[in-house]
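Kindly go through the following sequence and its backbone structure tokens. Advise at your convenience whether the structure tokens fit the sequence:

___
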Amino acid sequence: MKLAGLTVAYWCVLVASVLPILCAGLAKWGMLAIPRRQGGFDNHHPRQWLAKQTDWRARANASQANSFEALPFFMGAVIIAHQLGASQLRLDVLAFLYIVLRLLYIMMYVADLATVRSLVWGLAFLVNVAILFA
């Protein structure tokens, strides 16, 4: 299936590319309006500010890093599957499932549900392998 010339799987690549940005935004949530001298977000030194965060903000930032780390394998798997002529329906469903699992992973990470988070990460990895071999 194609939307605006792209397959659903390629749209999922776009969504996966935006996930780290959403995680970063979540880590900064509510801190943009607070002056940096009062502990608000420091856009002059954003990485240092994020590194100092604790609790759910730190976990949201960690989910940003993990989302960036997972992105190349997902992108590569989708491109390879397309190039090798995988069933488009299978590829679209698997790519969509991967996105759902990644969203669930981010939610579990921020909520500090470590065991569930790790299980979801593993499932997303297996789905990514399935995409590669679709």
